[in-house]
């Protein structure tokens, strides 16, 4: 794969990481580390959500709440989780 115009303008070739990320999106020379950190951040936020949601639902199923139905309790806990 030939270097992009942006990397040729700066006189700096793309690293292996930047060329690999270039398969999915436009990555300029020097942006590989930043884009990898952003990808890791999004991954960990989504993974945390998928771990917390079943734990929350399991705790709601077994815990008594004063005067709230299970549906109401789920709705209020979803609101609290989104904050």
General description of the model:
There is one protein chain. Helix 3 (32-62) packs antiparallel against helix 4. The longest helix is centred in the middle third of the chain and has 31 residues, at 32-62. The protein is 67% helix and 0% strand. The mean pLDDT is 79. The protein has 83 residues and is mostly helical.
Any chance you could write out the topology, listing elements then pairs?
Blueprint: H1 5-10, H2 16-21, H3 32-62, H4 70-82
Helix pairs in contact: 3-4
Work out the number of β strands.
0
The helix/strand class is mainly alpha
Overall 3D form: rod-shaped
Average pLDDT figure:
79
Low-confidence stretches: none
CA radius of gyration is: 22 Å
Please outline the major beta sheet: none
| Multimer state | single chain
How much helical structure, as a percent, in the residues? 55-70%
How much of the sequence is in beta strands? under 5%
Q: How many helices does DSSP assign? A: 4
Distance between the termini: 45 Å
Give the SSE string: HHHH
Record keyword descriptors for this entry:
83 residues, rod-shaped, mainly alpha
Summarize this structure briefly.
This protein is mainly α and 83 residues long. It has helices at residues 5-10, 16-21, 32-62, 70-82. Helix 3 (32-62) packs antiparallel against helix 4.
């Amino acid at each position: 794969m030939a270097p992009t115009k942006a990397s040729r303008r700066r006189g700096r070739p793309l690293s292996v990481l930047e060329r690999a990320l270039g398969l999915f999106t436009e990555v300029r020379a020097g942006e590989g580390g930043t884009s990898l950190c952003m990808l890791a951040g999004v991954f960990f936020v989504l993974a945390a959500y998928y771990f917390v949601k079943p734990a929350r639902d399991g705790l709601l199923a077994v815990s008594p709440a004063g005067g709230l139905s299970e549906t109401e309790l789920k709705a209020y806990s979803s609101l609290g989780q989104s904050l």
